[in-house]
Amino acid sequence: MNPILDNHCHLDSEEGMGIAAVEDFSKSGGTHMLVVNQHSWKSGKNPTDMSDFEERFYQTIEMVEQATEILQGRAWSVLGIHPALISRLVEDGQTAKEAGEFMCEGLDMAAKMIDKGDAIALKSGRPHYEVSQEIWETSNEVLRHAISLAAKMGIAVQLHTEETEDLFEVSGWASEMGLPWQKIVKHFAGGVCEGVTPSVISKKEELERAIQSGKPFMMETDYLDDPRRPGAVLGMKTVPKRTKLLRERGYEELMEVAHVDTPKMVYGIKTRD
Length: 273
Known about the structure:
TIM Barrel
């Protein structure tokens, strides 16, 4: 078995394809996946207490258990709070400080679940769109809180951030807190992102840039499993197909790094026995 890991995808057992998407991935040669919880607002309704976060987290954990039964390898959960939530809460009347504190409580809950073994990494970040200075500063405080939790636990953090090829600022925070920069993962990265480990969105042109960089990276689809946006962002078959093509082109060693060595370095997981 040649391991093929999708480092960031979403599954929705209620409204999306759910386990059928995992079957598509597996039939295409995919063996392992990291499943990130869906955002915490649903049908336009924002979360109001910790039970709303808890529901999303447990949905993800249950989907991962089902996915593991199908895959040749296995699935793992990544739990946390989407950084866009702060804007939604402020629009609902909360102050940025109140919204940030609420999000930090949600991250604390995710960290406790990770500590119990229900997941392997945190999800956090900061808005990828223009926001007020107050929201930006508060978002960075939330992000630093996530990093501090990860540092105490020795785990990785997947980041949803602005489009950038330089996150030295964030990896610097991690280093100050005792978390190796390699455990800061830029989700939806282009082919290059300095200062962190890029999880490259698996478009041909971005993978080419990642290969040319000569630096470790992982691959992802950011599959949304949203029936209103079928196939968004990339379909679940994409990472297996791209990996097979790159192996055929002679990049066997690089694909071993992407699907075996880098995940082990970042998360401490084994995709090859």
